[in-house]
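Hi R.,

As promised on Friday, here is the backbone we talked about, encoded as structure tokens. Could you run it through your design pipeline when you get a chance and send me back a sequence?
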């Protein structure tokens, strides 16, 4: 997509879309950074039984934060190119440009897997209720996060190695008109984590339906709460997939009609960052354990009572 002959009108439109993208990235970065700081600074008020859910939330916020940083850099590069279209692109079309989009893809996949891992945690709490080592071992989940990061780095590696990351519109990405690249991205980036999340949800529902009569009242309350969380995670993942549809639709439209809108790149990346910002907002609103971060520390009633009784005696 050549930008060497931009008119003043088209330049204004490009800069407006660049500014919107930068604004969305700034919102995502500020929002996630604030919650990362809250979790780290207020970690002393976190109960030991809630440390794992906070670890999983921290993993999600960090992944979105890193992804938003890379997309912010991409939109800034696009704005610079649109404002100065006569500047040589040779200095930008480098291997580092491709490495950056590869790293941003790792962060994107890690964000998707963060939802999968939260669903897996709830799955263990329901299925292995009598074996706390499955859902109370923080080292197990720390190791799991490292494994998922490595998996997130391996999945898009074939895309990088076969050269599907191309320089386009002053940044690097998988070309929206590359059928091979978009097909690989769909399966390697989106479908794997989304499919795992759906499988976890189906297995959990299947287990509950076949064992509901054996649950105690306490188990039923706990399962109801966990299933609500898993259901929200599933809908959240579906929401993210729907926001990824513009990229796929652009490829399909190109092969059917030979047309790609000049706004396609902006629409694709803006919807990506918007969906992950929405994911962090939903996580914040529907996660009761996060409320302790901005609430006052609860008073230690039991020790005070004990001291009073000793005084009276």
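Update: got your reply. Pasting your designed sequence below so it's all in one thread:
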């Amino acid at each position: 997509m050549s930008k060497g002959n931009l008119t003043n009108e088209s330049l204004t439109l490009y800069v407006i879309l660049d500014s919107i993208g930068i604004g969305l990235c700034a919102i995502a970065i500020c929002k996630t950074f604030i919650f990362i700081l809250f979790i780290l600074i207020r970690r002393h008020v976190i109960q030991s039984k809630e440390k794992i859910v906070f670890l999983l939330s921290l993993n999600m916020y960090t992944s979105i934060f890193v992804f938003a940083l890379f997309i912010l850099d991409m939109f800034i590069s696009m704005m610079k190119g649109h404002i100065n279209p006569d500047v040589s692109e040779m200095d930008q079309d480098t291997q580092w440009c491709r490495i950056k989009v590869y790293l941003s893809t790792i962060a994107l996949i890690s964000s998707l897997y963060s939802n999968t891992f939260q669903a897996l945690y709830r799955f263990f709490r329901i299925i292995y209720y009598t074996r706390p080592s499955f859902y109370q071992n923080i080292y197990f989940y720390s190791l799991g996060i490292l494994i998922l990061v490595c998996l997130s780095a391996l999945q898009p590696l074939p895309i990088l190695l076969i050269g599907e990351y191309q320089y386009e519109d002053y940044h690097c990405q998988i070309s929206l008109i590359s059928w091979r690249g978009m097909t690989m991205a769909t399966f390697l980036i989106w479908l794997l984590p989304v499919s795992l999340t759906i499988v976890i949800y189906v297995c959990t529902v299947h287990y509950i339906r076949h064992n509901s009569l054996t649950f105690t009242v306490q188990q039923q309350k706990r399962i109801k709460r966990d299933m609500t969380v898993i259901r929200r995670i599933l809908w959240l993942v579906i929401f993210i997939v729907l926001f990824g549809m513009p990229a796929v639709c652009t490829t399909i439209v190109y092969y059917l009609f030979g047309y790609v809108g000049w706004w396609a790149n902006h629409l694709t990346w803006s919807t990506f960052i918007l969906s992950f910002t929405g994911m962090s907002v939903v996580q914040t609103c529907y996660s009761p354990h996060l409320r302790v971060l901005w609430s006052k520390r609860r008073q230690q009633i039991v020790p005070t009572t004990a001291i009073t009784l000793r005084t009276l005696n």
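One thing I noticed while checking it: The chain has one domain: 8-286.

Thanks again,
M.
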